[in-house]
Write a structure and sequence with these properties.
Blueprint (H helix, E strand, L loop, with lengths): L8 H17 L2 H13 L5 H10 L19 H13 L2 H25 L13 H18 L2 H6 L2 H18 L7 H9 L17 H22 L16 H15 L26 H18 L7 H18 L4 H4 L2 H11 L14 H17 L5 H11 L1 H8 L7 H8 L14 H24 L4 H18 L4 H4 L3 H13 L1 H5 L14 H16 L13 H23 L1 H13 L10 H17 L5 H5 L3 H12 L8 H13 L8 H12 L9 H23 L3 H12 L10 H17 L4 H23 L8 H18 L9 H20 L4 H18 L7 H10 L4 H18 L4 H4 L3 H15 L3 E2 L11 E2 L2 H23 L15 H12 L7 H18 L12 H24 L8 H19 L4 H14 L10 H9 L3 H17 L1
Antiparallel strand pairs: 1-2
């Protein structure tokens, strides 16, 4: 579509066709062509779009596209078409025609929005025509809006776009080129200014008036969105060549200043023209005009006693208050706190509809109350110092009004309400008022209360602030006790803030004259407040009777989230007043019906909750230990163990009791009878054998925790019984009480701890371990015979991984070497696991769990595991295809080196090269290259690795560096020159040398690891100390030291002397220290000091060869005289400092 004059009829038809094709088919090609056309146009297709709007009848034009109505054609014609549509197919044709009109208009308006006309371009000869085009656009929009049928038929998305364009015109031309935009838009819509006084008698209950008001509200909303609070992404940003965000921001600030009455002098693009004081009386500013008109709408609706059935009228009032809220945060505070405005907001807050037992959508009157509450919250949250905020809150009298609306007799709230007749807002009775309004009021109380308490703490002597605090306190407690999580949860923040204030400013709360500082029972006021909050928490923390404890359900998850916040309040109270909380806990338990097994579930649950979370609030930590020091609390826990609460029918009561018993298990060490009772419940049909899966699974974990916490001594008397019970659960006769494999792992670990740490006879240990492992291993052997083994790797892999994990968990009971007889049993199990790995090496889960098992067996079997390691490592590395496999193999080899030192060489010799090859292979397959720099000197030939891929590569290579470093540090270096690995020694040394230099490996930690590798090899292979036995053959030693002198040392010296190396950095300093040690060992090695002098001092320091900048004679003397690593470090630092000063 070649660009032609926008006034060309042919061009406009082509443009319109492309728009309709893109809108109806969603064609990306058509949309792209339109974008290209717009970008190539000087005015961004503004002229063409204005013509398109005229062709559609906008602005009174009547082009070929349609005459009559500006939007959808002549009204009579439209009605006729609609009547025809009722008889047959013309109805769908009419709908398509209307949609096409809307698509063309929306595209034209959007393109105009993104055009340079509305981009705040600086004044220039090329932009002179833009002013005329903006005038045409303004005329079209205002003329179109003046035709009421247009507003009635205009889709909401088009109306919103019209409001945006008018707002952008305001940003572009107000106040210099468009002095009175608000008046002009009102006039076009046929709406009276709120100051005219001649509109009060008009009937607003008409569709025409509602449509006009809706359009004006869209305009005001757009002013807020485009000028006051613009979105972070602007249409002109990134999509237009006119990316002038600075000019746009400057114009926004100018428009805001002008709306508030500040004079804008000079050019509208001058940024230094905002005076400090307004030059227009506040009541005559355009901001006052906006507030006045919105207030007029609200007061008119409220004063004419409009019925609830007329939802359209109330909806306009809701929109008006929502628009008002956008302006309250930045207009002059005197306007925002206008007495009439605040009064109307308070009246609206009290006008919500009554609630009902049936859930229903909120009425418009309720939505109006919500918006009024949000507006008042914004007023209360305006930024200012605490004294001014206290004065503002006193002026707004939010708390007094809410006390009146909710019939709370505090301060002068009731008197105020009777005088103003504000309505009602029931904060006491559930469903007394629609919940949306009550929740919004609670949010208002929370916001205003947080603001109030700041000022009150600074000066608690002011009577007005003190009165407000009393009112706020009663309101927030009423909301906290309200039977709805939306209302109660909304005031959690202010309740928490009050508790903080009670802790830090207790003297203010208890001082006479502010509150009734002593209650009837002699407690201080702060204690009385805490007691009231505890009573409310006891009420609100109870779950509903029909609560299913299904936390995947959205509603029940919200209930649990809410109660989590209440528990935090309780913990804060415990920390603040532990004795009051403890007394309250005792009262809650004493009030429960006896026996506990038949008490109502919500009542028992909340009482146990108080006991369970009491320890979380006690200080000093650990809280459970501190709590048990209180004799009354200890008696409470012991009484619960002696009760029949474990017989309660509800599963959540059982689990909470078991959690409680584990948390306070310290007292069970000295009470064996209570431990017996708890273990009996936990392992019986009320725990591990419970019909419900959740109870059985949770009890597996809790039993393990209990065993670990009470210790071997306390558990000794119960070992045989518990182990026999666990065995019957692990291999049940019936599948109905089976335990999921991942949960059964807890039982295997518990069994191992009981057998290995409680001092049982060796014969009994062997018998029990054999009894547990025999059916388990038999099951593995049977599964290995399955013909489908290799066809369903995922299913069998998961099954085998659990079996291998079970053996590993069982072995945790023997942290040190178990008796030889027990080792024999585990060795047999290891052989079976090797068969599993060989049969199914392609399963990632099997490989991972096998590596974990071997790490456990290294501790359990000691050197007995070494003969089996080569076969395991061969199977693991043959299918090492993932980064996790590399990590598992690396950790396994490292642990073998750490544990067995020189003895590990034979077991890992054949695994070194395959491991390093796998590291390289995975690094190459998991990372790719992408086109990049054209720097041919880099050796990349214009290809580079993106930064995130470099990080991934380094994370994989780190495992190779770490493994080779462990081999060197733990004296297993003989594997590097074995018959299998000698041919690759040069490649290994080069790999580690690359790890020492930041240019290849930009990680100081890795650099230090690789430098340490060379340092240890120089020490061992140079026979510097007692490492004669570790010295390699002469030809290996010569080749190694040739690499060290020729590659490693020059490279490291060059890196250290480089300006990017910071010797004062902690990580770089470690690299320097390791290299200095290496130089010291090199000088002390069997090669002699003569070679060190010729190849380091003379060749590198004085000669400056191999790219190293030479040093002075003093530096050379420093190296020549150095005997220790610290001396070498001093010489290197002196050399670096000398070069820096040159």
């Amino acid at each position: 579509m070649a660009y032609q004059s926008p006034h060309s009829e042919h061009y406009l038809q082509q443009l319109e066709t492309a728009i309709l094709h893109a809108a109806t088919t969603g064609s990306q090609e058509s949309s792209h062509r339109l974008d290209v056309e717009r970008c190539q146009s000087v005015d961004g297709l503004a002229c063409a779009c204005l013509e398109l709007l005229r062709r559609r009848g906008w602005g009174g034009g009547g082009g070929g596209g349609g005459g009559g109505s500006a939007i959808h054609g002549n009204g009579q014609q439209q009605q006729q078409q609609q009547q025809q549509g009722e008889q047959g197919s013309p109805k769908s044709s009419l709908a398509v025609g209307v949609a096409q009109h809307d698509a063309v208009a929306f595209y034209a308006l959007t393109t105009l929005q993104r055009s340079p006309l509305l981009s705040c371009l600086p004044a220039a000869p090329t932009t002179n025509d833009f002013s005329a085009l903006r005038g045409q656009l303004r005329h079209i929009l205002l003329t179109t809006m003046s035709h009421l049928p247009n507003l009635l038929s205009m889709p909401s998305f088009v109306a919103t776009k019209v409001g945006v364009l008018l707002a952008l015109l305001v940003r572009e031309e107000y106040p210099t080129d468009w002095a009175c935009p608000l008046r002009d838009v009102l006039a076009a819509l046929g709406l009276s200014s709120p100051n005219n006084g001649n509109d009060n008698g008009n009937d607003i209950n008409t569709l025409n008036k509602i449509a006009s008001m809706g359009m004006y509200l869209s305009f005001l909303d757009a002013i807020s969105d485009e000028i006051v609070y613009p979105a972070a992404f602007d249409y002109t940003e990134g999509k237009s060549p006119h990316n002038n965000q600075t000019e746009q921001q400057m114009r926004r600030e100018q428009v805001k200043d002008a709306l508030r009455g500040y004079a804008i002098n000079g050019s509208k693009h001058d940024s230094n023209n905002s005076p400090l004081e307004p030059c227009v009386p506040l009541e005559h500013t355009h901001a006052a005009h906006i507030v006045g008109w919105l207030l007029n709408v609200l007061s008119t609706v409220q004063s004419q006693n409009v019925t609830n059935e007329n939802e359209e009228v109330w909806a306009i009032a809701v929109r008006a208050v929502a628009t008002m809220k956008r302006y309250l945060s930045w207009i002059d505070l005197r306007l925002a706190t206008n007495q009439n405005l605040v009064h109307m907001l308070l009246v609206g807050l009290g006008g919500a509809s009554p609630g009902s037992d049936n859930e229903e959508e909120p009425t418009q009157r309720t939505l109006l109350a919500v918006e009024c509450a949000h507006s008042l919250s914004d007023l209360a949250g305006r930024g200012m110092d605490e004294q001014k905020k206290s004065a503002l809150l006193a002026e707004l009298n939010i708390f007094g009004t809410l006390c009146c609306l909710s019939q709370l007799e505090v301060g002068n709230g009731a008197a105020l309400g009777g005088r103003l007749n504000l309505g009602s807002l029931d904060l006491i009775t559930a469903d007394g008022t629609q919940i949306e309004a009550v929740a919004a009021a609670a949010e208002l109380i929370n916001t205003a209360g947080l603001e109030l308490i700041q000022g009150w703490e600074l000066d608690p002597t002011l009577q007005s602030t003190n009165t407000q605090m009393k009112q706020c306190l009663e309101l927030m407690l009423a909301c906290l006790a309200y039977d709805s999580i939306d209302v109660s949860g909304a005031v959690v923040d202010i309740i928490s803030r009050v508790l903080v204030s009670l802790e830090k400013k207790e003297e203010y709360w208890n001082s006479g004259g502010l509150f009734n500082h002593e209650s009837s029972n002699g407690n201080t006021f702060s204690d009385a407040i805490i007691s009231r909050i505890l009573l409310i928490l006891h009420l609100r923390m109870k779950y509903p009777a029909d609560f299913g404890f299904d936390y995947e359900d959205e509603e029940e998850a919200e209930e649990e989230f809410y109660r989590g916040h209440l528990r935090k309040l309780y913990q804060r109270i415990v920390r603040l007043r532990p004795q009051i909380a403890l007394q309250f806990v005792g009262q809650c338990l004493a009030s429960l019906p006896q026996p506990l097994s038949s008490s109502p579930t919500p009542d028992v649950e909340v009482a146990l909750r108080f006991v369970y979370h009491y320890g979380e609030g006690r200080r000093p930590a650990p809280g459970a230990k501190t709590a048990l020091k209180d004799a009354p609390f200890r008696e409470i826990v012991m009484a619960l163990h002696r009760s029949d609460v474990s017989s309660h029918p509800h599963r959540e009561i059982l689990l909470l009791y078991y959690d409680l018993g584990v948390r306070y298990s310290a007292l069970l060490k000295d009470s064996p009878e209570l431990l017996t009772l708890l273990l009996g419940s936990l392992s019986g049909n009320r725990g591990l054998q419970h019909p419900h899966t959740r109870v059985r699974c949770r009890c597996c974990y809790l039993l393990l925790r209990l065993i670990k916490l009470v210790g071997a001594k306390a558990m000794r008397a119960h070992v045989e019984v518990v182990v026999d019970g666990i065995q019957s659960l692990l291999f049940p006769v019936r599948d109905t009480l089976s335990i999921p494999p991942n949960e059964a792992l807890y039982l295997f670990e518990a069994t191992g701890i009981l057998l290995g740490t409680t001092g049982l006879d060796t014969a009994l240990q062997v018998r029990c371990v054999t009894a547990v492992l025999t059916p388990h291993i038999r099951s593995i052997e049977q599964t290995l015979q399955s013909p489908d083994l290799t066809r369903d790797v995922e299913t069998f892999g998961e099954q085998f991984s659990m079996s291998i994990s079970a053996i590993a968990q069982l072995s945790k009971g023997w942290q040190k070497h178990p008796p030889p007889e027990v080792q024999t049993v585990f060795a047999a199990a290891v052989d079976i696991c090797r068969n599993v790995l060989v049969a199914l090496p392609s399963s990632p889960l099997v490989r991972n769990r096998t590596a974990v098992l071997l790490q456990r067996m290294i501790l359990c079997l000691g050197e007995g595991i070494l003969p089996a390691m080569p076969s395991f490592l061969d199977a693991l590395l043959s299918h090492c295809t993932l980064e996790d496999d590399v990590l598992d193999s690396s950790q396994l080899i490292n642990q073998i080196c750490i544990k067995f030192k020189e003895k590990a060489a034979a077991s890992i010799d054949s695994a070194i090269l395959p491991f390093l090859q796998r590291v390289l292979a995975i690094q190459l397959t998991e990372t790719t290259v992408s086109p990049g720099s054209n720097d041919t000197n880099s050796g990349n030939h214009g290809i580079y690795h993106p930064p995130h891929l470099i990080t991934e590569q380094l994370s994989i290579r780190k495992q190779a560096f770490s493994t080779l470093q462990h081999i060197a540090v733990h004296n297993v270096s003989a594997v590097l020159y074995s018959d299998k690995n000698l041919a690759s020694l040069g490649d290994i040394l080069q790999l580690m040398n690359d790890g020492t230099t930041p240019c290849h490996t930009p990680d100081p930690v890795v650099n230090k690891t690789c430098a340490q590798f060379f340092c240890e090899l120089i020490n061992q292979w140079g026979c510097c100390s007692d490492h004669q036995i570790l010295a390699p053959p002469t030809h290996v030693s010569n080749a190694f030291f040739e690499f060290v002198y020729g590659v490693f040392v020059p490279g490291m010296i060059g890196c250290i002397l480089d300006t990017t190396f910071n010797s004062k950095d902690a990580l770089h300093c470690r690299v320097l220290s390791e290299f200095s040690r290496a130089l010291a060992f090199l000088k002390q090695s069997s090669r002699g000091t003569t070679e060190f002098k010729s190849r380091v001092v003379e060749l590198l320091v004085l000669g400056g060869n191999t790219g190293v900048r030479k040093g002075s004679l003093d530096i050379a003397a420093g190296f020549q005289n150095a005997m220790r690593g610290k001396d070498m470090e001093v010489a290197l630092k002196a050399w670096k400092e000398e070069l820096k000063q040159q």
